[in-house]
Amino acid sequence: MLVTGGSRGIGRAIAEAFVANGDKVAVTSRKGGAPEGALDLVCDITDPAAVEEAYAAAEAAHGPVEVLVANAGITKDTLVLRMSEDDFTSVIDTNLTASFRLAKRASKGMLRLRRGRIIFISSVVGLMGNPGQVNYAASKAGLVGMARSLARELGSRGITANVVAPGFVETEMTAVLTDEQQKAITDRVPLARYATPDEVASAVTWLADAGYVTGAVIPVDGGLGMGH
């Protein structure tokens, strides 16, 4: 299996969970640093040639990629009137276009095997929206439409495509928030806390085993986005 953005945060927890299950795991990141037991691949997923090289290395080491977890993503948050063209397109290119590229490459091998799992890591922001995140929300919402289209297109070959939509998660990104900012967030969450990366990973590993779930959006958000 292949996990993108797997050197830290949610992606690292996902990779570690699969390694703990005894799976053969390849991890891509921009600078390297895969968890122990995983194949460490340096890859810029916005570069088609680099993606092809990463897939070739993963396949040479582990055989066909049967599970793709497209997790890598970036943010460039600012209000819409201040958002530059690059702020918008770079987030779309990394979060959405690169996920298409990864899924297209993965589907080649999965079609030959007549089985496979494609799992996109989206966000509650893609379902609810958020001020200052027009670019990020658009990219994460796009993953839902992509997954559901892939589910219909590839389902007859035993390939599922699903989305996990985390809410606020304990990561390096949220650790820098002030106590006031963190309280404002948790006050909105029915479970009144952040998720742990491991809780997101458990949803991903479940989907990897769930042969009759496809086109689904699984929220891991403590109830923040219920109804969306």
TrEMBL record:
GO terms for biological process: fatty acid biosynthetic process. SMART domains: PKS_KR. The keyword Phosphoprotein does not apply. Pfam families: adh_short_C2. InterPro entries: KR_dom, NAD(P)-bd_dom_sf, Sc_DH/Rdtase_CS, SDR_fam. Residues 2-172 form the Ketoreductase domain. Keywords: Oxidoreductase. One of its GO terms (molecular function) is quinone binding. NCBIfam families: PRK12826.1-2. Belongs to the short-chain dehydrogenases/reductases (SDR) family. This is Beta-ketoacyl-ACP reductase.
